[in-house]
Amino acid sequence: MVVVSLRIDLHTHSTASDGTDSPTALVGAAADAGLDVLAITDHDTTAGWREASAALPVGMTLVPGAELSCVSDNGRGRPISVHLLAYLFDPDAESVVAEQSRLRAERRSRLRWMAERMAEDGVPIDPDELLGALPADAPAGRPHLARALVDAGLARSVDEAFATYLGSGRGYYVPRGDTPVMRAIDMINDAGGVTVLAHPLAYERGPTVSLSTIAEMAAHGLTGIEVAHPNHDQPTREKLRALADELDLLPTGSSDYHGTNKDIPIGAETTDPDVFVDLVSRASGCEIVAGVAG
Ligand code: AMP
Ligand code: FE
Ligand code: FE
Ligand code: ZN
Predict the structure, then answer these.
(1) What's this model's pTM, rounded to 2 decimal places?
(2) How many other CB atoms are there within 10 angstroms of residue 280's CB atom?
(3) Which of 44, 55, 122, 204 could form a disulfide with 27 if both were Cys (CB 3.0 to 4.6 A apart)?
């Protein structure tokens, strides 16, 4: 019997969001690392799918995905930020398109609100000018306002603009109106995809959900949870694996690669092939992509 062990990384970022590798370079890095299956999961966008698909070498498989920024109850009545990996959904499904346009509008009004509060305080930022200069289809965010502050000579760098004005805890910070996680699970299921809760217990990133909230997500149609992730230590992985067993959730593993923005190499954590096959079998929104590039 020939046993082929597939190497599968289901969570990576490109320059379509906050990674440093272009989608083409991301696929190249995956090939260099000996990966057989790669998911591209940029934050809140599918913009890298096409380029990554075209760059895929023969023998490599791409799983189109995204990492959705969501808000959840933490289980004790407080809203916290959670990340939801979504795979193999139809990006043109009505449920997805409608929520994306709501989020774009929400991001613009939030940025205007921050700029207006600055203007009221005498900071020489013109909200109309800022909004007018935003890219038409990219999501508006604090980096745009930070850049305007640098251009106006109010900060020496984007980092300084965050440290002085825009970081959470700074005077002008306003949280985003992210998608409620239960709504995001519905939206992706409606679009034929599957969802996996990203780094559920990554304590170092901030507050995490309670296990009972994960159980509610499972009852709501969540398909899996990330168990092997660079931010999870061994006891955390064991706890999550037991929870996945108990709730019948698929346990995945991934590097959350961001290029040189983080020091974790691609393929540092991987997903069991049986889990991968099960995940794909539950999705119908779009196809996995087989490599044809020479
Ligand atoms: P937003 O989605 O509008 O809340 O902006 C979040 C983005 O701002 C992140 O994806 C980062 O790219 C960027 N960002 C967050 N904190 C900092 C910081 N301290 N310095 C520079 N960029 C930051
Ligand atoms: Fe990121
Ligand atoms: Fe994340
Ligand atoms: Zn990520």
Answers:
(1) 0.91
(2) 17
(3) 55
Which among 20, 162, 174, 178 is the best mutation to test ligand 1's pocket, defined by most ligand atoms within 8 Å of the CB? 162
End-to-end CA distance of the chain: 30
pLDDT reported for residue 28? 98
User: pLDDT digits over 34-50, tens only?
Assistant: 999 999 999 999 999 99
Q: Which residues have a Cβ under 8 Å from the Cβ of 223 and sit 6 or more positions away?
A: 194, 195, 196, 249, 250, 279, 282
User: Under a CB-based contact definition with an 8 Å cutoff, are residues 152 and 124 in contact?
Assistant: yes
Q: Provide residues with CB under 6 Å of ligand 1.
A: 18, 141-143, 158-159, 162, 167, 176
What ranges in the chain are assigned the alpha helix state H? 23-32, 49-55, 94-120, 127-132, 142-151, 158-161, 181-190, 211-219, 234-247, 273-281
CA-closest candidate to residue 25, choices 15, 17, 35, 37: 15
Ligand nearest to the CA of 259: 2
12 pairs with which residues across the strands? Answer: 257
Q: Which ligand is nearest to the CA of 175?
A: 1
Dihedral class, residue 287 (left if φ above 0, else alpha if ψ from -120 to 50, else beta):
beta
Tell me if 67 sits within 8 A of 44, measured CB to CB. Answer: yes
Q: Which residues of the chain have pLDDT under 50?
A: none
As a whole number of angstroms, the distance between CA 26 and CA 216 comes to 34
Instruction: Name the phi and psi angles at 5, rounded to 5.
Output: -105, 110
3-state SS of 6-53 is CCEECCECCCCCCCCCCHHHHHHHHHHCCCCEEEEEEECCCCCHHHHH
What's the confidence (pLDDT) of residue 136? 75
* pLDDT score of 1: 63
d(CA 145, CA 155): 11
C-alpha of residue 198 to centroid of ligand 4, in Å: 7
